[in-house]
Amino acid sequence: MTIAKIRADESLPDLVRFPSLEKMRQEIERLREERAKMRMERRRGRAQQKEKRAEQ
Question: Looking at the predicted structure, is the pLDDT value of residue 1 above 70?
Fold first, then answer.
């Protein structure tokens, strides 16, 4: 079977038809988690700066 035939066969699961999709999903999830951590760190930093200004 050629790749085109495999991909055209809708009776097969997506992970068989498009094996790279799962890896792509995992990478997208990893990037989302990484960005969420970065946003949290930025928010924490801004909150600390705000507290320092309020103390002065």
Answer: no
In angstroms, how far is the first alpha carbon of the chain from the final one? 73
Q: What b/e readout covers 12-26, taking b as 16+ CB neighbours within 10 angstroms?
A: eeeeeeeeeeeeeee
The pTM of the full predicted model, rounded to 2 decimals, is 0.58
Do 15 and 22 form a contact (C-beta atoms < 8 A)? yes
CA distances 38 to 31, 51, 53, 54, Å, are 11, 20, 23, 24
Please give the pLDDT value at position 37. Answer: 97
